């Protein structure tokens, strides 16, 4: 495997100058130049749409950042020794999971398996979950709240309200009046 890895490293071309993503580099430069030109045009030329030019130039310069990030991330080089473990070039010994990383991997596997199995067990809605009763702070279920109907009618300049009953306790609503101002 070491011979194969060294052959892969030797076969990769050596990039010089601008690196691998030359197209992204030149697009970023063009976006910067065009954005700066439009922005400066909006600042120094006396036209009625100068604000549009300023904003458009700033937006084009901002969009050039996308090309700069593509160019930079495309030119990141990772040594093959660090790359072995990440892309599967190095075969791991599955039986020898020891140390902290092995314990974390086993714990993560147990937790994700438990969560996955609980979703499989509770996959379909049951009758107890769809008709769940609200609970009070102490825990036991409480009866659902009653709906209160308040009938209001307008008669002339006064408002008449009906009494409201919550579990037949006979609470009477106070009478209110509205004021009208002449228009």
UniProtKB/TrEMBL annotation:
One Pfam family named in its UniProt record: TMEM238
Transmembrane segments: 21-46, 52-71
Region (Disordered): 118-144
Classification via InterPro entries: TMEM238
UniProt superkingdom: Eukaryota
Keywords, ordered alphabetically: Membrane, Transmembrane, Transmembrane helix
Name listed for the protein in its UniProt record: Uncharacterized protein
């Amino acid at each position: 495997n070491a011979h194969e890895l060294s052959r892969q490293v030797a076969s990769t071309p050596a990039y010089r100058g601008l690196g691998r993503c030359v197209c992204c580099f030149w697009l970023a430069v063009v976006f910067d130049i065009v954005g700066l030109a439009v922005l400066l045009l909006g600042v120094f030329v006396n036209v009625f749409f100068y604000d549009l030019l300023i904003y458009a130039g700033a937006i084009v310069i901002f969009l050039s950042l996308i090309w700069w990030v593509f160019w930079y991330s495309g030119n990141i080089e990772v040594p093959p020794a660090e790359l072995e473990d990440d892309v599967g070039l190095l075969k791991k010994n599955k039986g020898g999971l020891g140390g902290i990383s092995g314990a974390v991997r086993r714990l993560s596997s147990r937790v994700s398996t438990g969560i996955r199995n609980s979703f499989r067990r509770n996959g379909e809605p049951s009758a107890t979950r769809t008709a769940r009763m609200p609970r009070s702070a102490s825990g036991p279920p409480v009866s659902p709240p009653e709906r209160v109907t308040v009938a209001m009618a307008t008669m002339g300049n006064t408002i008449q309200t009906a009494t409201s009953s919550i579990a037949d306790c006979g609470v009477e609503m106070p009478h209110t009046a509205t004021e009208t101002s002449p228009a």
